Structure formats: structure tokens, C-alpha cells
Amino acid sequence: MKLLKLVPDNTNIGFVAIRHWAFALTALLTVLAVGATAYKGLNLGVDFVGGLMIEAKFPQNVETDRVRATIGRLGVGESSLQQFGDPKTVQIRLPLPEQGGAGAANAVVEKTRNAMTAEFPGVTFSRYDTVSGKVSGELIQNGVLAVVLAIVGIAIFSWFRYEWQFGVSTFVAIVHDVLMTLGFFAVTQLEFDLNIIAAVLTIVGYSINDKMVIDDRIRENMRKYRKMDMKALIDLSVNETLPRTVMTSVTVMLALGALLLFGGHVLRGFTAAMMLGIIVGTYSSVYVSSSLLITLGLTPQAAEKKAAKKGYAGTAERVGPREASRDDGARP
């Protein structure tokens, strides 16, 4: 039975040769993402802003002004409406009652549902959430802290496991992935809630896994080919791991595609974040973090010194391009 290969064997793509273009593109996209986030802001879910959130699905397309007018007559506070997924689904956000606690909040929800049902026969309510302002503030702090600690912890791990240049390149690549995700949500105005924080942490985990595979191969080749030019060595390492990188990304994207089509609109934001994260994570692993090692001054001699200190310096040597020999080390 013939094995499926998305990437042919013995590829010799010059990733490093276009690193300056890749750096420029990465910097441009990062600036645009930060600018979009600062200018448009994130459509924070009720998890982060507090209040009541009711999700209503209408039997036909509905005008949000008519929905807003219906709620306005109830005197339950200023409502914020957003069509979600399609013109038939609307998210309604309301402030929490100042007094009365959970009982008052439930009364507002019930009052809103009754009024909407009378005005729009056939409307259904698939979801409602209630979060206090104090809890939402704690969720924001904990969510940001979780992402920052994950990034810093992974960078420190890379620093100690390899050379310091790996830690810096990993930190840069992961921050890029996270900022791109924030920019995407700012542009699309998809709801940013705790599910998206979970997606961002998953993206960080996926991205670091991809980078570790490539970094391990780079370090391994640095020990073997101590006289090889660093650009050729990194191209060799990325090409050797390319089949694994592409196959993993494609299979994960297939699973996420099924989730996007059949998972319902509740998971749409999470799935979209994951799909974007896979794309930018793969890009940053192949084109950014690896090539950045050259800019940071990493050389095979650094690995040789470190290996000598630990007493496992190898004896293999290759200084030519990849076509000259593929007798070892080429394990996708």
C-alpha cells in the first residue's frame, strides 16, 4: 500500500533566502494586528464585561432596530445587540440589575423573553449567561495572566534546553501568533470570551510543539555538521521536518474544518481562532523563528562547546549542500 505523502522526499526549499521578506511581512502584519486591536477593540463576551447575555434565533431575518425598540420599552437598561453568525441570530446584552442579585437578573431575562416572544412569534432562545462585574474582572486578569505565563515559561524552557537564541526566537514567534489572533478577532468582531482564551492557550501549545520539533533537528544537525554554513543547516533542518509539519497541520485543519461546519455557531469563534493559529503558527515556525536564529548570531560552534561540556560531542561532519549526502539525519 502506497503511503500518502503531502510533501515529497528530499525537498530542498530555500526558506532562509527570503528571511528578510518574511521578517518584513511579519512585522507589517503584527503592526496591523496591534493597530486593529487598539482601534476597533475586541468584542468582549459577557465573561469579561459582565452583565446578561441572551442569544435569540428568529425564524426569518430580523432588523436589530426593531429588537432594540422592543427591549427599550421594558426599561431594563441600555441593550447592546449584535447579529451573530447569520441575520437570524442576535445576541442581546443587558446590564445587571443594581439590586436583587440572581433573582432580579432572572426576572429581567424572563421579562425580555416574554416581550420578544410576543413581538416575534417563533423566536427561540438557545443560550443566556449572567456574569457579575467582579467576576468578569477576575476572569480578565486570570486569562491574561495564563497567556503571559505560558509564553514566558515556554521561552525560558527553550532558553535552558537549547541556546539562548532559541528562547528569544520562540518568544518572538509565539507573541506574533497571539497578536495575530487578537488582530483577527478585532477585525472580524467575533465574540472574544473564555473559549477564545482556551483557544489561544491551545495555539501556544501547538505552536511550541511545532517549533520544538524544528529546534531539536537544528540542534541535532549543529552537532553533526559543525562546519556547515548556518543558513544551509537551517534550510536542511526545516526541509527534513517539513513533511511532519505539513501533515500535522493538514490533519488538524481537517478536524477543525469538520468542527467549523458541524459544531454550531457556539464553537465557531473557538474553531476560527484555532484554524488561524495553525496557519500563523506553521508560518512562524518555518519562516520566522528558525531564520531568526541567524540574525541572533547562533553558530554550530555554540552547540559544539555546549556538547563538549557535557561530553557528547559527535564526530560526524558534513559541509556541503543537502544533495551531497543524505545518509543520516533525514528523518521527517
Helix percent band: 55-70%
Determine the strand fraction and express it as a percent band.
5-15%
Order of helices and strands: HEHEHEEHEHHEHHHH
Strand arrangement in the largest pleated sheet: 3-4-2-5
- Give the biggest beta sheet: 4 strands, antiparallel
Approximate shape = elongated
Number of helices: 10
What does this structure look like?
The protein has helices at 19-40, 46-49, 64-72, 101-119, 133-161, 164-188, 194-224, 230-262, 268-295, 300-310; strands at residues 43-44, 51-57, 80-83, 89-94, 124-131, 191-192. The protein has 332 residues and is of the alpha+beta class. The strands form two sheets. A four-stranded antiparallel beta sheet has the order 3-4-2-5. It has a two-stranded parallel ribbon with strand order 1-6. Helix 1 (19-40) packs across helix 6 (164-188), helix 1 (19-40) packs across helix 9 and helix 5 runs antiparallel to helix 6. The longest helix has 33 residues, at 230-262. It starts with 18 loop residues before the first helix and ends in a 22-residue tail after the last helix.
Descriptive labels:
single chain; 332 residues; alpha+beta; four-stranded antiparallel sheet; two-stranded parallel sheet; 10 helices; 6 strands; 64% helix; 9% strand
Topology record:
Blueprint: H1 19-40, E1 43-44, H2 46-49, E2 51-57, H3 64-72, E3 80-83, E4 89-94, H4 101-119, E5 124-131, H5 133-161, H6 164-188, E6 191-192, H7 194-224, H8 230-262, H9 268-295, H10 300-310
Helix pairs in contact: 1-6, 1-9, 5-6, 5-7, 6-7, 6-9, 7-8, 7-9, 7-10, 8-9
